[in-house]
């Protein structure tokens, strides 16, 4: 068993009211001279103490350490002692020390009696000094006074500390029952009265002696006067399932020189009752131990009993409440040794687990009641059984050679039976994981021989005693030794640098692979005088020696060693480091004048050559100012160079670097050079753009190939006449094209070009000759027109002057408007015939001539009008809607809105026997239309006047007809229109039968037809429901495809008249006969929950609200009562609003509800819904906890015994109704969306 519990876990926290000091306090505070009290807490090694810092974070302090803690009221902190111990104050050198000593018979130190239940704190705002039990760290802590020196008490005088819970005087009994032990409900009257007297005295002491009942507007008590009033504590000691994790011991040093005076009379009176209850708790018998195993045992005990002589008790003696809690603690250091808690609970039996085999244990039990802990019982001793040994540790290698290994091991715990033999197994060096026995005996070491050098062997060990064999230890791998390696070969140079050398060497060929060989690389610097010094010691076969000098010689050798010894060094080799690269040359400079195509540059050698001579210089040249690409232009040993072949007016950048045996130097600074510009070179001759025109040509050219190092800013174009060599400038500017005008058609001209930049004009280009083209024809005369028929016209024209080129084409434009003519003919003819024209229509035409030179201007436009003709064919025929058909039949007195409830007059034309058609009037072609012919196919054509709407009557219902129309005027009959297929509607439906399926005093649910309540979207039959109002008119209630409708907001006991009409796509059918339905009377409204007033244990008065008469009908009431879980029974029926219920059982719950009854004039009764249920709970004896306000015991006890009201039947019904309403709304939404729409 472990002596200590594990340290505090992260989930455990300290009380937020725990006072903490961030730094050690001044001496004034430690000596008690300041206003506050400082306690130094000593944490022993191996223990942990968790505190909360000022920033709110929690810190776990492990011992050994000293933690300063501050008492907030500046008084001596309360000392909590268990039963059997007393606290004694000793003053030494001005420092007061509190000692906790075991209580001896007839020994009362300092006149203080043992305080087992300390009074509440003097102020409610002062935090408790000792943390909450749920927040206390599990390990035990030793609190030692530091101010007066280290505590001089031995371990048997250190009291056992129990975690406590603190409450201020403002905490109610409800909050106390949540944190502390729950109050006992099943307690007899005698125990309740004794407990009430005890609590009353505690509250009186809070108000008088402890300063808890501070009067308003009175000054706060002095800290010195309230020193001996420790806070109220509820010592749980595991009650409620929380066991003590470890024992907490403390000795607190207090430096307060004055203590407050207590009223000894009240303290003695309180201690008298406490001692009586403690004496009863301490009379518990010793436990019994059974079923003892190697690592567990079962402990049984019984309740504390009172001697037979004390069975007759007075009312002043306390009575033990049930159930009690018990704490089991064990010790392995003797009956008077240190005990550790193993169980805490309300049972009378416990199983102790995790015990040590073959170990003597001592067990005792303590009884606990509320906040008191009785004395421990007599200890019972028992010894656990023996068992097999614990698994031993793995064997270790004590010595070894190339062919043997000597193993040693330690004996494990024998668990009560002496170890007789050890079983050592090995894998014989095979590495397969299969173990064989190599030794069996009582010795603790063994030498394994005949092994291979530099080999691995695996071993494991087990111990055996009379009880059995232990488990095997962990497998350990051990190796045999090897021989001293041979001298290795000399190291080789793998790579060299300026300040480093990378060397490698080989493993001695004679050494096996299993041997771990290490190498020592030694180095000697030339002319250093220190000899060989080690540079590397390890198992790698290569190493890079760094921090060397450039161009220096070094000597190296290597030696190998293993566990057997070190070899001789190898032969000495010499290696030289490389030279460093030189520094950059100086910045180059210009020598002489910069030419347009060359310049001369020079530079100085670098200041540092890196330990080697400069072999060559490299010059790089870059064109432009960005330096994007560099070109090598020189490589040699000279210090100057002429850069030629450059471009005029261009910017260049040049730089230099040098090279030696050490490498390439950095680049020098860049030198930028700008060459001067020259005039641009000759341009290419200008070229013709497109075909030359008769009086102008368009020329285009490109920039010269050589711009002279400066951008071209201007171009000059000269023209030379066809019969002279004189030239003139026709254009000068920056553009690359121009148009030369004022030329003669069919002539040859010469053109030359030159370019200019900031340096001047360049030479002229070669000559370019261009011949102008012929001109376009002249304007034609106006064309002439001749009408051959109403739809045909012949247009003719004459050829215009050709203007140097024959006319190859004529273009005729024709259109109904002068501004929207289009080309209708293109060819070489002088006439054209226009067909497909509209009669009696104005047209415009014009013509133009075209030759190779271009298109001539259009002639003047000519107007031409075609003669009249028969009408055109009717294009579209439409079917009149029912509304339009009704207005066509009765155009006077428009109907009112359908929603207004007015009945429409019957249709003059039924859509079942009539077809109303309309059509678009065709073009009359210059002569007015006089009539239309309507052809139905089988019947004689119908002749109508010049209208566009007509109703065809005397047709068959639900029959299709093919209809076509033609127009007539004074010139003849036009063509028929396209055939249109129209169909008459079937006859309208008859009205359905109307029924009332459900009714109430405000609603009527009506149903008609034989279909379901909701019809499919494909059903075209719909219904129109109407209701008669007060004025005798029928108003519309519903119009749609459904077969039911709910009429709401009606009056009770009232008759209503309804009628219904069916309609579909064929039309509206006739209305049904009038149906009359009457609403019933309304029941009374629900009442509020009745009010209960308990008169005594067997009677109560029930009252409820009253309702006014309903339309002259009186109201009576019915009261029902239910006891427990039985059915409701009527307790009263009458007109009164209260009732006295008697003969109630004291320990039963009663539920009451009431409803109103309407006494109708026809001797019938209408009962309203019942009110919510109200519950009457039985009276129980309340438990008043300490810490409540003074004088509020009875009121607080009543509030704490109130039971929570369960959900009433009306509330359950309302919840079910809401669920069904939500489901119904969702179903209605789905039907509306997917079925109706």
TrEMBL record:
<comment type="similarity">
    <text>Belongs to the FNDC3 family.</text>
</comment>
<feature type="compositionally biased region" description="Polar residues">
    <location>
        <begin position="1171"/>
        <end position="1185"/>
    </location>
</feature>
<keyword id="KW-0472">Membrane</keyword>
<feature type="compositionally biased region" description="Basic and acidic residues">
    <location>
        <begin position="185"/>
        <end position="206"/>
    </location>
</feature>
<dbReference type="InterPro" id="IPR003961">
    <property type="entry name" value="FN3_dom"/>
</dbReference>
<keyword id="KW-0677">Repeat</keyword>
<feature type="transmembrane region" description="Helical">
    <location>
        <begin position="1213"/>
        <end position="1236"/>
    </location>
</feature>
<keyword id="KW-0333">Golgi apparatus</keyword>
<protein>
    <recommendedName>
        <fullName>Fibronectin type-III domain-containing protein 3A</fullName>
    </recommendedName>
</protein>
<feature type="domain" description="Fibronectin type-III">
    <location>
        <begin position="682"/>
        <end position="775"/>
    </location>
</feature>
<feature type="domain" description="Fibronectin type-III">
    <location>
        <begin position="283"/>
        <end position="387"/>
    </location>
</feature>
<feature type="compositionally biased region" description="Polar residues">
    <location>
        <begin position="225"/>
        <end position="235"/>
    </location>
</feature>
<feature type="region of interest" description="Disordered">
    <location>
        <begin position="1171"/>
        <end position="1204"/>
    </location>
</feature>
<feature type="domain" description="Fibronectin type-III">
    <location>
        <begin position="988"/>
        <end position="1082"/>
    </location>
</feature>
<dbReference type="Pfam" id="PF00041">
    <property type="entry name" value="fn3"/>
</dbReference>
<dbReference type="InterPro" id="IPR013783">
    <property type="entry name" value="Ig-like_fold"/>
</dbReference>
<feature type="domain" description="Fibronectin type-III">
    <location>
        <begin position="776"/>
        <end position="869"/>
    </location>
</feature>
<feature type="compositionally biased region" description="Polar residues">
    <location>
        <begin position="1195"/>
        <end position="1204"/>
    </location>
</feature>
<feature type="domain" description="Fibronectin type-III">
    <location>
        <begin position="901"/>
        <end position="987"/>
    </location>
</feature>
<keyword id="KW-1133">Transmembrane helix</keyword>
<feature type="domain" description="Fibronectin type-III">
    <location>
        <begin position="391"/>
        <end position="484"/>
    </location>
</feature>
<dbReference type="InterPro" id="IPR050617">
    <property type="entry name" value="E3_ligase_FN3/SPRY"/>
</dbReference>
<feature type="region of interest" description="Disordered">
    <location>
        <begin position="1"/>
        <end position="22"/>
    </location>
</feature>
<feature type="domain" description="Fibronectin type-III">
    <location>
        <begin position="487"/>
        <end position="580"/>
    </location>
</feature>
<feature type="domain" description="Fibronectin type-III">
    <location>
        <begin position="1083"/>
        <end position="1181"/>
    </location>
</feature>
<feature type="domain" description="Fibronectin type-III">
    <location>
        <begin position="585"/>
        <end position="678"/>
    </location>
</feature>
<keyword id="KW-0812">Transmembrane</keyword>
<feature type="region of interest" description="Disordered">
    <location>
        <begin position="172"/>
        <end position="239"/>
    </location>
</feature>
<dbReference type="GO" id="GO:0000139">
    <property type="term" value="C:Golgi membrane"/>
</dbReference>
<dbReference type="InterPro" id="IPR036116">
    <property type="entry name" value="FN3_sf"/>
</dbReference>
